[in-house]
Structures are given as C-alpha cells and as structure tokens.
Design goal:
The complex is a heterodimer of chains A (about 260) and B (about 425). Chain A is α/β, with parallel strands linked by helices and about 260 residues long. Chain A has one domain: 3-Layer(aba) Sandwich (Rossmann fold). Chain A is about 35% helix and about 25% strand. In chain A, the strands form 2 sheets. Chain A has a 6-stranded mixed β-sheet, sandwiched between helices. A 4-stranded antiparallel β-sheet of chain A has the order 2-1-4-5. In chain A, β7, α6 and β8 form a beta-alpha-beta unit. Chain B is an all-alpha fold and about 425 residues long. Chain B has 3 domains: about 200 residues, ABC transporter involved in vitamin B12 uptake, BtuC (Orthogonal Bundle), CATH 1.10.3470.10; about 70 residues, Arc Repressor Mutant, subunit A; about 50 residues, Orthogonal Bundle (Diphtheria Toxin Repressor, domain 2), CATH 1.10.60.10. Chain B has 18 helices and 2 strands. In chain B, strands 1-2 form a two-stranded antiparallel sheet. In chain B, a hairpin with a 2-residue loop joins β1 and β2. In chain B, α2 runs parallel beside α7 and α3 packs parallel to α5. The chains are: A alpha/beta (about 260), B mainly alpha (about 425). The interface between A and B is medium-sized, with 30 and 25 residues.
C-alpha cells in the first residue's frame, strides 16, 4: 500500500538507481509528509542507503527525481542535513570533536571565511544538546561508537536545517545514546522538523516512528504506521527479493543492457 | 666545523641556491603530500611522479631546450594525464584504484625511459643532464631555478591557506561536502593541480623514483606527534626541511654523496624515530604502558594472595613468609620479592625479619580488588549466562581494568550482593 501525501516534505518520483547496471532501486515512488519521523525499513542490501544517497544526489540515477519542499535538491541544500553512516569516515582523522561539529556550519557562501563567533556558539549549543559539551576538545579517534554518532548528530544540528536524512543513526550505539538520540528526534519533530531515517530494528522502529517506507529494491509500502505496518508488509519486505526481478537485474548486468532507454 | 658554518651561513654562493631551492621544494611536497596522505591517496603521488618523465622528454624533443620552465610544463601535462587516466580506469572498468595506479605508473614511466634512451642515443646537442630527473641532482639548482621554485611555493602555500577548510572537509568526509552543495570536484581539481606542480619541481631534488617518499613520509611522521591538522602540516614542513638541509649538507661536505637519496634517508630516519618515540602512538610509549600494566597486575595479585591466605585462617593482618604467599599463588621468586618491596615502598605492606603483613591501606586495597573480582564473576553468571566454573579466568583479568565508576554501576546493577557465584563473601 502506498499512501501519497499532499504538499509533501519529500517526493521521490519513479526513481531507479543501479550499480554496475544491476538495479538496487527499481521504480521507487513515494512521498512523505512534513513534520513527521519517517523510518525506512528493509533488509540488508535492499537499497536503503542508496535511496538516501540518490535523494542527496551523491549517486547517479537512471531515472526519476527527488524533490524536497517541492524544489530540486540543489536549490534547498541549505535546508537539508545529511548524516552519513558513522562507519563511512575514518575516525583517526586529525580533528577534534569541535572541528567536526563546526563542519556543520560550512556553507557554500562562507567556506572561505574564518569561523565566526556565531558558528562557535551554534556548535557549542549543538554539542550540549547531544550531551557532548565536555568532549569538545577531545580527539575524535578517542570516542566510542555512541559518542561518534552523537558528534555526527551535533554536526547536523549545527546546520540548522529543516529536513534531516539520517543513515542508521542507531547502528552500534549504547542504550543511553539511543535514548538521547530518540529524545532529540522527538524534540526536533515538535519544532516542526522533518526527519527521514534508516533503522534496522523492526520492534523499536514500530515504537519510535509514525510514518514508514518499506523497501526491498522495489517499494513495498509507504504510509502512516497504522495503515502500512502489518504482517503482510513485513513478510513482503523481509521475505526475500522477487526472484523474477533479481533474474532480470542479473540479465541487465550480463548483457550490458540499460535499465532505462 | 668550518664547512658546516660556511654551509649554514649560506656564504658559499653555489650552495646558497641549492639550500634555498631544496627548502622550497620540500615545503611544497610535504604540504601537498599531507592531504594526499589523509585522503588515503598516497600512491597517486607516486604515479604522478613517475608519469612526469615522458613529459619532460617530450618537451625536450619538441623544443630542443633545457629551459626548466618548458620542461616542467611538459612534466605537468603528462603528470596530469596520469591522474586523469587513473580516474577514467577506475570509473569505467572493473579495475580497482590500486591496480589502476600501478598500470598508469608503469606505463608512463616505461614510456619516459624509452624516450630518454632515444634522446641519449640521438645527436641532439646539450642532451646530457636529462637523466638527472631520474634520481635528482639538487647540486645543479641555479638562481633561476630558485625563482621558479619560489613562485610555486608561494602559489601552493596560498592555495592551501585559502582552501584549508574545504580541503579539510573533503579529506574527512567527502559525501558530506557534496551534501551541503560544495563544488567538491573543483576542490579535487585544485588539489591535483598543486600536486602535479609540487612533483614537477620536486623531482629536481630527489628524482621521479624517490618523489613519493618526499610527499608522504613527512606527513606520516608528523601524524604521530599531533592530532591537530594545522600543527601536522607545519610539522610535516619542518621534518622535510630538516631532511632537505641535512641531505644538502652531506653532499656538500662529503665528496660524491648524492643529495636526493640522503634527503629521503634523513626524512625516513625522522619518521622511524617518530613511530618509535612519539607519545601515545609510538612503540616505546606503548611498551611503557604495557610495562606499567604488568607491574600493576603483579602488585594487585600479590595483595590478593595476602588476602586469600588471611581469608583461610580469618586473620588478615598476620605476618606471612614469602613461602606462605607462594603456596597460595604462583609467582617467580624474583618477581615476588620485587613486588613485595615495591608494595612496602607504597606503604601497602609492612616488613619485619623477612616476614610481611598487609598494612591497613594494603588491606583495603586488597579488599577492593577481591570485591571487583567477585562482582565481575557474579555479573558474568547473571548477565552473560556463563557457567560458574568458567568465570574465574575472565575475572582474573578484568579485576585490573574496572574503574570506580564501573564498580559503582556493577554494585547498583547487582544490588550490592553479599556473595559471589562460588559462595564467597563480597566485602564493601
């Protein structure tokens, strides 16, 4: 079941993305409302990270587009914050916690300026919100997994965006961090922010979030929790890939045919 | 000593330009190399360095001149082509970056050697000297060369100061830089331009074969001493400049000593010293920490042994012979007496006529370790479902690790238990 919304925060239209010709997202089309906590659920390799990267235009698309607040991503980047997977960067980089959070203040029009007092104050507030103020001067290689995730979230908060895309913010964090992040998300939602995140635990996802996108290469369902969260959706999502679709994908790769003409 | 003063005071006009030139080259290479190192693209520099050789030869064949500006122009073009071909190969084939770098490096270098051989066998006048680009010949740096080098250094330093923030960001988290709409490809383009520039002039000093070392080794050494990117850049410059001046001095004072290889040898020595002696990250510092840990474990185990002996006859402050302790727990005799004396110096043991007893501080310290041991055993049985007869070895190690904060958490979690899984008492 796919529930489309009026005046959406995010509209993903007929999106197909492939790696090495094999589609990892196939004709995905959904929209999500403003001011909600939306969770993308799906098994490993179902295209969740690719979806977020395609929305941010970090990977090339075969077809389709994504619009945020009815605008092209390049026109709204100032209002959008992207939190990559924690494991996607080298935490042994020579930088302090403060350095990383300040990166959230970098913008196209201030990248060559010195870091301002406002930037520092904003970064400090962001660190305080995630409970990491005492760690501002700490070298990032000395952080635990949960602390690294908090730093990434602080960097996103420092961006002061309207729309947040988070890739697995709960992956490998301790219970205290999970709670802290969850409370923050709720707070952000109350302030009218829109959040789309990837999560891997079905049980807590059901408890925490109110809008769901079920994904397994193709879109399974999208809509409010009460409507789409069902045994049927879950078994469709986690019951494996459609074997016919997989075969066609392999064929595209093997015969070097394009997925879109 | 006289030669050293002559050398360092730059009073000898020929060595003056050599020294200034080398310092400028090492500044370029270490600044650019630091970013290559942090972006895990160290080998690209090696590929570019080897790929400038055909460019130099082609420029010479076309213009029949050894004008440095023209030769370096040719170097920059083929150096740049090698970066482009590496990008193309990785983007449009199944070949991964490491193999693509290997291919580009060897193909361009082979082409360079072929051209070099053709030039050497030809009748072109003034052909000699091109082979200096293979291993470098710093001693031939002239006043005009220094002028070029200074311009390049000025450009590279200015670019790195201006682009410091974006370079730092794309080195740490490139996807994030794209996500906020920064022109990341443009920054990469700028970085590769200054990489090619620094290599094209740097081969004057050390040659194409050793150029990669000049780029990467100073950065690797500097990384050991600091966690601050700015300081790391400065340290890398200092390390490579020391190597540069040192190498120049050796070839100045000793006859027939090559400058370039000596520069690399000195920089590498600094790097090895850094790996060994840098605080926290260095090998020696790690060994020192391990030595301290072993000492702490020995002392805590001796205190525990005193406690266990006391527990048997319910008298903790009795005088004990070393043999009593050895009966309870195995220590080598020398380790035990070393440990006993250290504990006495710390005031945790008291000694009379070769007999020892716990002091009151010693007793409470022993109690603390025993308590940690037993709390941990209980935690393992209750929370990790480990059988009672399997928890002892684990606790033997972990008792030395637990901090007062974790102890407080354990006590709360287990609700101040009175006995461990083996029925032994936990004393608070």
């Amino acid at each position: 079941m796919i529930i489309q919304v009026e005046n959406p925060a995010l509209e993903v239209h007929d999106m197909t993305v492939s790696y090495d010709r094999r589609p990892v997202l196939w004709g995905v089309d959904f929209s999500i409302p403003k001011g909600h906590l939306t969770c993308v659920l799906g098994p490993n390799g179902s295209g969740k990270t690719t979806l977020i990267k395609a929305i941010m235009d970090l990977v090339p698309k075969n077809s389709g587009y994504a619009k945020i607040f009815d605008q092209d991503i390049d026109d709204v980047r100032d209002k959008v914050s992207y939190i990559p997977q924690r494991g996607s960067v080298d935490w042994d980089f020579p930088a302090s916690v403060m350095d990383v959070v300040l990166m959230g203040r970098y913008k196209k029009n201030n990248i060559f300026n010195r870091i301002s007092r406002t930037d520092r104050i904003n970064a400090e507030i962001a660190l305080e919100k995630v409970g990491m103020k005492a760690f501002a001067k700490r070298q990032i290689s000395q952080l635990s997994g949960g602390q690294q995730q908090r730093v990434f979230i602080a960097r996103a908060l420092a961006q002061e965006a309207e729309f947040y895309l988070m890739d697995e913010p709960f992956a490998g964090v301790d219970a205290a961090t999970e709670n802290a992040i969850l409370n923050l998300l709720k707070e952000m939602k109350d302030e009218g922010k829109t959040i789309l995140l990837i999560h891997h635990d079905i049980q807590t996802a059901y408890d925490y979030f109110d809008w769901f996108v079920f994904l397994n290469t193709r879109l399974i369902a999208s809509g409010p929790k009460e409507t789409v969260f069902s045994e049927k959706t879950l078994s469709d999502t986690y019951g494996g890939k459609l074997s016919l679709l997989t075969t066609v994908g392999e064929l595209l790769k093997e015969k070097k045919l394009p997925v879109r003409e | 000593m006289g030669t050293f003063i002559d050398f360092i005071s730059l009073s000898d006009p020929t060595s003056r330009y050599v020294i200034i030139g080398i310092i400028l080259l090492t500044i370029n290479a270490s600044l650019v190399g630091s970013f290559a190192f942090l972006r895990k693209k160290s080998l690209i520099g090696d590929a570019v360095a080897h790929s400038v050789l055909p460019g130099i030869c082609l420029a010479f064949l076309l213009f029949q001149t050894k004008n440095l500006f023209i030769l370096l122009g040719g170097a920059a073009i083929t150096g740049w082509l090698s970066i482009l071909s590496i990008d193309l190969i990785t983007a449009h084939s199944r070949i991964k970056a490491d193999a693509a770098i290997g291919i580009a490096l060897s193909v361009f270098f082979a082409l360079g050697i072929v051209l070099l051989t053709i030039i050497q066998n030809s009748a072109i006048a003034s052909q000699s000297g091109l082979d200096h680009f293979l291993f470098g010949k710093a001693a031939s740096i002239t006043r005009d060369d220094v002028r070029y080098f200074a311009i390049v250094t000025l450009i590279i330093t200015a670019v790195i100061i201006i682009f410091y923030k974006p370079f730092k960001l794309i080195s740490f988290n490139q996807d994030f830089a794209v996500s906020i709409g920064l022109p990341v490809r443009f920054y990469e383009f700028i970085l590769s331009i200054i990489t090619v520039m620094s290599i094209a002039v740097g081969i004057q000093a050390v040659g194409v074969v050793l150029m990669a070392a000049l780029l990467i080794t100073p950065a690797a050494a500097a990384r050991y001493w600091t966690n601050d990117l700015r300081i790391m850049l400065i340290l890398a410059v200092v390390v490579s400049a020391i190597g540069g001046v040192g190498g120049a001095y050796i070839s100045y004072s000793a006859t027939n000593m090559p400058t370039g290889p000596w520069i690399i040898v000195i920089i590498s020595c600094i790097a090895f010293l850094s790996f060994a002696f840098a605080p926290n990250r260095g090998i020696v510092s790690k060994m020192w920490i391990q030595y301290q840990n072993r000492k702490q474990i020995l002392l805590e185990n001796i205190l525990k042994a005193f406690y266990h002996v006391g527990e048997k006859d319910n008298s903790f402050l009795e005088m004990r012979k070393p043999e009593d302790i050895l009966n309870r727990r195995e220590f080598s005799f020398s380790k035990l007496s070393e440990g006993l004396n250290k504990l006495k110096r710390k005031g945790l043991l008291e000694k009379q006529n070769n007999e020892w007893k716990l002091s009151s501080e010693g007793l409470s310290e022993a109690k603390r370790i025993i308590r940690l041991h037993r709390l941990w055993e209980l935690y393992l049985t209750q929370y990790l479902n480990i059988a009672e007869d399997h928890v002892h070895d684990d606790a033997e190690a972990i008792e030395h690790v637990l901090t007062p904060e974790i102890e407080a958490q354990l006590e709360k979690l287990l609700d101040f238990p009175s006995t461990d899984p083996h029925g032994k008492e936990i004393i608070y």
